Amino acid sequence: MSEARRYGRTVRAITLGAVLLAQGSALVARTGFVRADPARGGDAAAVLLAGVRGLPPAGPPEIVGTLEGYADGAIVVLTTVGFRHVRLDADTVVARPHGRAVFADLRPGAVVMVWGRRALLDGGVRARAVLVTDS
Amino acid sequence: MRRTVAQVAGRVWETARRGTAVAALGVAASSSILYLCTLTPGLSSLEGDSHELTVAAATLGLPHPIGYPLYVWIGFLFTLLPVGEVAYRTNLLSAVSAAGGAGLVALAAGEIGLPPFLAAFAGLVLATSTTFWSQAVVTEVYTVNTAAFVLTVWLLLRATRPPGRSASVLAARRFALAAAIVFGASLGLHLSNLAFAPVYLSYAALSAPHLRRDRRLLALALAALAAGAAQFAWLPLRADFAAFPNPRPDTWSGFYRYTLGAFAETRFAYPLEAFAGRLVFYQTLALRDFTPAGALLACAGMWRQAWIAPGPFWLLFGVYAVNVLLAAQVGVPDSEVFFLPAHAVFALFAAVGADAVRALAHSAVADRLTPRRRQVLVATGASLLLTALVSLAAYRFPHLDRRADTAVGDFLRAMFAAVPAGSEILAGRGIFGQDVAYWRRWHGGTEHVVLPSIEPALPATSPAPRFVKARLADSRLDPAARWGLSEGALPSQPWAVACVVGAGRGLVLYRVHAEPPPLVHRAADPAHRLDVASGAHRLVGYTVAATATADRRVRLRTYWRLAEGRPPVVMTAIAGTPLESHEVGRGNWQRARAEMPATPEGAFVEEFDLVLPSHLVPGSHRIDLGLVEFGMVGPAIRWIPLGSVTLE
């Protein structure tokens, strides 16, 4: 008996339905989430407002770690899997849990959460929002 | 005739299986080479739990909850190997486990019917994924746990082979029992494995009725599980090793808090409305680790596996879903590593997806091609997959290469050499100070120093020089509760001045002063005058030693005009490579401005020994100071060459 013939139509239908449900809901969650997340959508003002209200920007950060160093237009963050370059620009919003912050608040040793777009492979992140949670 | 066909089919299957075994060995061997080429040589500067796990393994001690008994025992055996230092040996355990885990993924891929090349592809996809690789080169429990997880899955697949492929019912029983033993043992690697039990049980019961009806096997499997759980008897036996801030596991409540009750606040840490966001977090992680192409293949692989073999699909998808759903709810900063079991299954699905592409291509063009051209087509596809994997590994190599991670060892060596005899070094107690405990135990040159974190402290009235190796905020312990240091260990309102600085955040030794130290000089007398502006501040000049000490310290002194506002931020670099960054004064700038009178000619002086990395070859090396300025588009660094330092 071949592997494929071991299972009846009902089992196969349920199984394929489960794959459809899992992948479909994952896709819907991602699409809806990306649209709703101001940090990804580029609405910097909304992100800042979220910071001022004492809430981090919606959704999970791309990077959480300790600020270990700097490069021109970038900070270097130490994470669990190693060092990550986080590129900053004029549109990057920097916030503290209870208020607005500036680039100068990105002090060495600060614990930062970074929202933004990750490069295709491991090339770091272009930050849309940086939350300084501790230092 | 039927018998002959069955014999031929059996022989074909056995050949393919042997091919899979060769593929698995090839994956394990090539992954081993990859990990050995990027392995951390000693204590990792990524910190985490690695220092504590190394010391616990080498002393058969008790690391933080859940105690990880099996990990400690395997780790202990690795610490007996005559290679490298003790920390290298526990790093090696991660590498060997990761390579073994990748090989087991190839075996599991063969078990679900993939040809040897695609089985190898599955193993290599996992081996070269970022998070898995990152854990393979440092001391951690995650690759050992992933290997045990994949072994359990493979044994279950092997035990529930379809009747046409099974060697015998006896063999199936043996594999089922082995799966139960490995699963029970794996609880000592990570207690989250317990969540896979319902999936394993349901799969075994539904896929192999003959196993379900075997009461003797059921009893033996339960006994194996109980034996696995019995390893936790190690905890109360070693309760004396329970380090701050953990409870002692030698009472029922302490034992519960050390095992099932541990880190309760981090489980299901996110509200239900955050669930979609957590799922997207996992998706982002999977896209990073496997690339969008790999993720597409895995999605296609799920469909193909569900169509071809729903039974094994449910086993794989079940453990995958359980792991993703639970790990996404864990509220810790390093939650990426909790997804590694799901990553292993994802790699399997990616290989099944590649098999789907192969099957599609075959059905589309194979009939129109000659056998030779068909072979060329297959070889081209295989070459493309291999090239993609090799390119990915080459791209990730520099990001994950930890061979030069000697910062912790370099710093500790220099730190102990720098302090005078009879000094006291206050380091973090318990799990936060195991790097110092490690150095005391396995390296020389520490006997002249008192370490209150692991031995009796000097009396508070002792005039001995005092140092602190712990994170400070404005010269104060920050916070004492985390580091386990007594508030009375330091004078009230101490001045803590950095004197030895390594290449990492926690690698700073402070000298403790009860009286104000001479941080502000009445007249600046640097060997090299600069007068460079850095925002509102001015760097007056600097003095740098021409030669490094034998333990690779180079003395650097910078002179600054005290100005209002926050202190300037600087970086140091040797031979063009940044070493560390810090705020000038490390917490003393504002206090010095407030408490120390400055003259117009005077200057705030920062002086410390910078520890040079041990991989720097003897010779003359350029040393630079970077002034970090924060503009409208982020930080900008102005590098100032300070000359050269000779390393003998």
Short note summarizing the structure:
The complex is a heterodimer of chains A (135) and B (648). Chain A is an alpha+beta fold and 135 residues long.
Helix content of chain B: 40-55%
- Oligomeric organization of the protein chains: heterodimer
Number of strands of chain A: 7
β-strand amount of chain A: 25-35%
| Tally of separate helices of chain A | 3
Q: Which H/E pattern describes the elements of chain A?
A: HHHEEEEEEE
General shape of chain A: elongated
Mean pLDDT across all amino acids of chain A: 77
Q: What's the gyration radius of chain B in Å?
A: 29 Å
* Helix fraction bin of chain A: 25-40%
Which runs of chain A of at least 5 residues are low in confidence (pLDDT < 50)? Answer: 41-46
Strand order of the largest sheet of chain A: 1-2-3-7-6
Task: Characterize the main sheet of chain B.
Answer: 9 strands, mixed
Number of strands of chain B: 15
Spans where pLDDT lies below 50 across 5 or more residues of chain B: none
Number of helices of chain B: 21
Strand content of chain B is: 15-25%
**What overall form of chain B do the CA principal axes indicate?**
globular
**Based on helices, strands and strand pairing, what is the structural class of chain A?**
alpha+beta
Report the mean per-residue pLDDT of chain B as an integer: 91
Radius of gyration of chain A: 20 Å
Describe, in plain words, how this protein is organized in 3D.
The complex is a heterodimer of chains A (135) and B (648). With 135 residues, chain A is of the alpha+beta class. Chain A is 30% helix and 33% strand. A five-stranded mixed β-barrel of chain A has the order 1-2-3-7-6. Chain A is elongated and about 65 Å long. Chain A starts with 8 loop residues before the first helix and ends with a strand. With 648 residues, chain B is of the alpha+beta class. Helix content of chain B is 49%, strand content 15%. Chain B has 21 helices and 15 strands. In chain B, the strands form three sheets. In chain B, strands 1, 2, 5, 6, 7, 8, 9, 10 and 13 form a nine-stranded mixed sheet that branches. In chain B, strands 12-11-14-15 form a four-stranded antiparallel sheet, with no helix packed on it. A two-stranded antiparallel sheet of chain B has the order 3-4. In chain B, β5 and β6 form a beta hairpin. In chain B, α4 runs parallel beside α7, α14 runs antiparallel to α15 and α14 packs across α16. The N and C termini of chain B lie far apart (81 Å). Classes of the chains: A alpha+beta (135), B alpha+beta (648). At the A-B interface, α1, β1, β2 and β3 of A face α6, α14, α15, α17 and β12 of B.
